[in-house]
Amino acid sequence: MRALRYHTLGEPPRIMNVDVPVPGPGQVLLRVTAAGVCHSDEWLMSRSREDYTYGALPLTLGHEAAGEVVAVGSGVTGIDLGEAVLVYGPWGCGRCPSCAAGSENYCRQLGGPRPPGIMVDGAMAEYLLVPAARHLVPLGDLDPVAAVALTDAGLTSYHAIITSMPRLLPGSTALVIGIGGLGHMAVQILRALAGETTVIAVDAREDKLDLAREVGAHHTLLAGPSTADRVRDLTAGAGVNLVLDMVCAQSTVDLARRSVAIGGDIAMIGTGSGILGVGVGQMAFQASVRRPFWGSLPDLWEVVALARNGRIHTEFEAHPLESGPEVYERLKAGEVRGRAVLVPGRPS
Predict the structure, then answer these.
(1) Of the candidates 331, 249, 258, the residue with the CA atom closest to the CA atom of residue 45
(2) Cα→Cα distances 173→185, 243, 246, 344, Å
(3) How many domains does the chain fold into?
(4) Could you tell me which of 32, 36, 4 has the C-alpha nearest to residue 18?
(5) Rounded to an integer, what distance in angstroms lies between the CA atom of residue 338 and that of residue 178?
(6) The domain spanning residue 279 has which CATH number?
(7) Where in the sequence is the domain holding 309, given as residue range(s)?
(8) Which of 268, 290, 312 is the last residue of a domain?
(9) What is the distance between the alpha carbons of residues 120 and 125, in angstroms, rounded to a whole number?
(10) Complete edge-to-edge strand list for the sheet that includes strand 2-6
(11) What is the distance between the alpha carbons of residues 119 and 296, in angstroms, rounded to a whole number?
(12) Cα separation of 248 and 231, whole Å?
């Protein structure tokens, strides 16, 4: 089968031929119908030899996956051949307290979860081997290409927001920094779950702010030296009750710190290397900082329900698998609107 593989440290991924996996006991084989392209992949491929601690190379990329069940291993029950599914990506041990609660994203064994496309071969291929049927969520009548980003861009945003719902009372304000795959989903989820919360979106590109307005942001601000002052102006000086930093560069972390209200939350979600100081005079009193990771399996079911009910949707652009290397270059340059999706079998 054809697969997009990260082959050599520091070099772009390339299309390679690999064997089709064979499901063993408890495993499920999917024919991939869609695979999302995420900044986390680009971040992983930027790691040096010293700090690359992920899956052995060559590694098939892709941690956002949709597919159809084509084969199952012994002992698998409750799933039908041909069933359309989304894949829950944070594959944990399944036995620790976190996994037992459905939060495999915080697995306490195995050194943490082992996601496809990061620790083991992922979805940017014609087939994907899933280690257990519990990782599959029925897709129903949703379009897999339109829905695949729910498994990370939607799930990660939802998990960060739902944890801070006590902060999002009527009259509250939320700030979303970075309107890419996650950010444009976060704006919609905030509008769906916290309808009386004012949403402010910040990005360094005007076209991303156009997207933010299209999906429901009340205010949009172009990133710059005065952005924090403008956030304060929009909140009558109080600051925002929730900051979702989808970038985590030093400039965005500083914006988060300067924008958060007394008692507010900052969720640092992006893969940047910014550092947030929380000492005296560094941040508002009683403000909390979290570093959420992905989301739980119950969270994903709820995200899918929001999409099925028409409350959220993904802005996406679809590309054939063979275009993967060029798509990553466009993603790195900030040229992707919403989420890019690779579709095996799609004509070039």
Answers:
(1) 331
(2) 17, 9, 17, 41
(3) 2
(4) 4
(5) 11
(6) 3.40.50.720
(7) 2-150+296-343
(8) 290
(9) 13
(10) 14-17, 2-6, 59-60
(11) 18
(12) 18
